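Review form for a predicted model. The reviewer records the input and the model, then writes brief findings.
Reviewer: anonymous (R2)
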Amino acid sequence: MTPHPSSPQRISLPRDLPAAQALRDDGVVVTDGARDERSSGAAVRVALLNLMPNKPVTELQFARLLACAPCPVDLTLVRVGSHASRRTPSSHLNRYYRTWDQVAGEPFDGLVVTGAPVETLAFHHVDYWSELQEILDWAEASVARSLFICWAAQAALYHRFGIGKRTLVRKAFGVFEQTVRRPDRPVLQGMGPTFKTPVSRHTDVTEADVASRPELAILASSEETGLCLVEDESRGSLMMFNHLEYGDLSLDAEYTRDRLESRDIALPANYYPDDDPARVPADSWGAGARTFFSNWVGDAAQTRTASRRAAHGDMT
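Model under review:
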């Protein structure tokens, strides 16, 4: 996924993170720690709780999109302490990541929690479920804006509302058009009446279950793949069930992996030109992804500014 050429491109990352060079090659200004901006309050502090196995790939995907924001972003990489990653070297985790208990006392303007390849497990069978519940409670109390992706979105709904997930007869897999149902919401400004997004999941949450809770609003959905984006406005939370963060070849990598492992997997829908896996897929969702993440960071920044003004008013 290529960056938006007209967007401000600036992000602070852990020093010497491998993703930094790829971002610089894209024309992004990458800094280490953004100490001046952090002390002056210019940078939006975002914690990325990365639950994906191949963490370097996921880091780059999210960093590319967060860098498109209208203000500089200071990104902190976070992992759960109760799970040992098998795909990412411990040297990478120890150098670039902090555990949640190490950052829980720090102020963040936004939290992003990635998906995880555990969606077919019952929530209570996930080995870091107790820790994730604590993180969800911390986010509700301490972080103004949270974004939960795919399985993390399902986990947030289950923890907060008891809304369960169901297993699909066949994996929802491909690029699908989503209909915007609440164009008034800040995160969907400029997205148009529809937008495309990669979808890759074996489970879903029903619209009826979400609609039964007055605290929740359905912001976008698809006739083919169901719910896409749900908002819990009182908690500043967004639940995104799909993968706007995916790069051009993410679905191709999943399809190739599953075929090599002899899994029963269909071609990702609406992805390869003429459904030919030998042809390079087009990035049909990149512009919408950049707009979405830019809006989300901008909303976090505005919320922080409003909170500071309110606090200042209380003291005067």
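Findings: The chain is about 35% helix and 25% strand.
Further findings: The longest strand covers residues 166-180.
Recommendation: see findings above.
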